[in-house]
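Weekly sync, protein design subgroup
Attendees: M.S., D.O., the rotation student, P.L. (late)

Item 1: inverse folding check
M.S. brought a backbone from last month's batch and wanted to see whether the design step gives back something sensible before we order anything. D.O. pointed out we never logged the input encoding, so this time it goes straight into the notes. Structure tokens as presented (402 positions):
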């Protein structure tokens, strides 16, 4: 069944594909969107793969050099950049890089961002006063996470605009459907981002501030094992991992409320339900649909024989709709008793920014519900053509402002 999936089918309704695959086998082999590998759609199996060290990120370790894809001179700096990111490393380098960021990315630092997130949200929505038509991504959800992540990293306000291009370039770079031409076309943007951070680091070495980047520079100065290329890669990872995903969380959540007016009404009457809206959105329309791992050893899983060197696509979205863990999984219901999802993954790569993403999602929705009265969708939104991330091109709606 996997062979017949076209990109359009996947973008318009990935869930039917994941549900059918799971009913067939939660661990299914096939030719899937230009790659041949395992598609994991069962919750238990997906969690197992994410946690088991026999599934790895650095697939190139499994093959002789002559079997690896070759990249042009122009693409190599961008490849080198991604190879320095914790997201694409395994232990012990992954552990070393993650621990360093963990030290700087403390719960205290996240909580310190709360007033800034509230102020930025209010500021963006004040600009909507008196308007009747709105585009949520352009007017609000794109901007909020950029402001927050630049604040966290310590990037000067005037440089925020640069980030859109870099973030878009990186998203394209890591999509499952990327061609060599795509890689070529975005590599220069990634090089530019890398040069920008190199310069910012040299400025912060002279005048450190209370921000995450200064914290990383301090860690390096304390003799922790972190080189400048890794620091640059970490900045770019945080920028992108913390941006596109959060835009999608806020937009998808508001879209789901607009299309489930009876649930929007419940939220308007009881704001304490907003954290459920965030969790149920993460489960039902997750910002990251799929991730991948390489099989590092032959093994058996769900009765299937997995071989060293094969790739496994872990469908977080598919796992979230496994009826064995969530009853009536294909309906959006903020009143669920328990909401189980793998939308922040699991195991060693569990999303480092999950507490921040949740905080941003809750504050954003509180402010949106407070600001807009009688919101109505103006047109059916179009999903962006990306196999890894789930988000709209735009979300047009009509509403009075309060
Ligand atoms: C709703 C928003 C978000 C979602 C759905 C999300 C989802 C994820 C997922 C699924 C992974 C693991 C990928 C894998 O295992 O292959 C991940 C990793 C990561 N996320 Fe998030 N993320 C979100 C927001 C954020 C934010 C706000 C930040 C930081 C500011 C962030 C930083 C990271 C980092 C650094 C990693 C890599 C962790 C590692 O490799 O150990 N994320 N995220």
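Designed sequence read out in the meeting:
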């Amino acid at each position: 069944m996997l062979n017949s999936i076209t990109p359009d089918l996947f973008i318009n309704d990935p869930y039917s594909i994941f549900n059918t695959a799971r009913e067939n086998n939660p661990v299914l082999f096939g030719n899937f969107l230009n790659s041949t590998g395992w598609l994991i759609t069962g919750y238990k199996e997906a969690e197992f793969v994410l946690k088991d060290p026999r599934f790895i990120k650095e697939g190139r370790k499994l093959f002789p050099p002559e079997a690896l894809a070759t990249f042009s001179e122009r693409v190599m700096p961008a490849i080198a950049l991604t190879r320095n990111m914790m997201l694409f490393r395994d232990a012990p380098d992954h552990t070393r890089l993650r621990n360093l960021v963990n030290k700087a990315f403390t719960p205290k630092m996240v909580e310190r961002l709360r007033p800034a997130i509230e102020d930025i949200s209010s500021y963006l929505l004040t600009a909507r006063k008196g308007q009747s038509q709105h585009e949520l991504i352009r007017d609000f959800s794109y901007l909020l996470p950029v402001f927050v992540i630049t604040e966290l990293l310590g990037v000067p306000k005037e440089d925020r605009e640069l980030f859109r291009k870099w973030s878009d370039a990186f998203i394209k770079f890591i999509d499952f459907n990327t061609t060599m031409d795509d890689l070529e076309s975005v590599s220069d943007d990634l090089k530019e981002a890398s040069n920008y951070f190199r310069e910012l680091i040299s400025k912060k070495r002279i005048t450190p501030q209370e921000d995450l980047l200064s914290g990383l520079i301090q860690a390096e100065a304390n003799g922790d094992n972190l080189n400048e290329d890794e620091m640059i890669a970490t900045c770019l990872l945080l920028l992108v991992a913390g941006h596109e995903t959060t835009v999608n969380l806020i937009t998808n959540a508001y879209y789901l409320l607009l299309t489930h007016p009876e649930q929007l009404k419940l939220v308007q009457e009881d704001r304490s339900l907003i954290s459920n809206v965030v969790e149920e959105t993460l489960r039902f329309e997750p910002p990251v649909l799929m991730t991948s791992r390489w099989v590092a050893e032959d093994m058996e899983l769900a009765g299937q024989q997995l071989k060293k060197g094969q790739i496994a696509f872990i469908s977080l979205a598919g796992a979230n709709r496994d009826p064995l863990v969530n009853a009536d999984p294909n309906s959006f219901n903020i009143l669920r008793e328990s909401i189980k999802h793998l939308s922040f993954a699991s195991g060693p790569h569990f999303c480092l920014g999950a507490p921040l993403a949740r905080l941003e999602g809750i504050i954003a929705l509180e402010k949106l519900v407070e600001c807009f009265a009688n919101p109505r969708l103006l047109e059916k939104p179009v999903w962006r053509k990306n196999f890894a991330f789930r988000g709209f091109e735009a979300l047009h709606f009509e509403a009075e402002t309060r």
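Discussion: The chain has one domain: 2-401. The chain has a mean pLDDT of 92.
Action: P.L. to compare against the previous round before Friday.
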